Amino acid sequence: MKPYLSTQMSNAFIAFQEGWKVLRREGLGQIQFWFIALAIRIFAGFTALFFCKGIDALQSFLYGTDDVQTLHSFAESLPWYWILIIPAIGGLLVGRILHKFTLDARARSVADVIEGAAMKEGRVETRAGLASAFASFITLSSGGSAGREGPRCSPCCCHFHKSQPLYSC
């Protein structure tokens, strides 16, 4: 059984290598393009899912509650200084992240992604986009106010921007 399995794995790997060479040499066909688009959408969906679940997990950790849906009720029992300190520390962390990883110390948004696609030949700032996503993650988890769309969009666009040469797009 073991030699048969290793032979099949070897054959599959060789077929993958040959297919990859053809794909790189001839470019994308219509079907291949649609499969790549599907893979990117699946990646984007899981990114959004993990972003939301991560916010819930960090809120649970920071505020000490198991159910973040009842956080507003649970906050009544917290000492007043926790309600003041947690968002303040979150804001300090966000300021430090944006100051260190972005040139203009501001968070990137969906508008920046659209601008990069339209005016910069599909180029997005990877470092600034990921820093903005992480900063928004901390902002939302610590009780600050920010939109969830930009941080969901930025990592996906950065991933596609970095993987674009692989697909000859």
Explain what this protein looks like in three dimensions.
Helix 2 (30-63) runs parallel beside helix 6, helix 2 crosses helix 7 (149-163) and helix 4 packs antiparallel against helix 6 (126-142). This protein is 75% helix and 0% strand. It contains seven helices and no strands. The radius of gyration is 22 Å and the shape is extended. With 169 residues, it is mostly helical. The protein has helices at 2-26, 30-63, 71-74, 80-101, 110-119, 126-142, 149-163. The chain has one domain. 18% of the residues are buried. The protein starts with a helix and ends in a 6-residue tail after the last helix. The model has no long low-confidence stretch (mean pLDDT 79).
Characterize the biggest β-sheet: none
Q: Helices and strands, in N-to-C order?
A: HHHHHHH
Would you identify the regions where 5 or more consecutive residues have pLDDT less than 50? Answer: none
What structural class is derived from the secondary structure elements?
mainly alpha
- Helix count equals 7
Percentage of residues in strands: under 5%
Counted beta strands: 0
Helix content: over 70%
Write down the domain tally. 1
Outline type:
extended
Q: N-to-C terminal Cα separation, in Å? A: 42 Å
Query: Rg, please?
Result: 22 Å
**For the residues shown, what is the average pLDDT?**
79
User: Oligomeric form of this entry?
Assistant: single chain
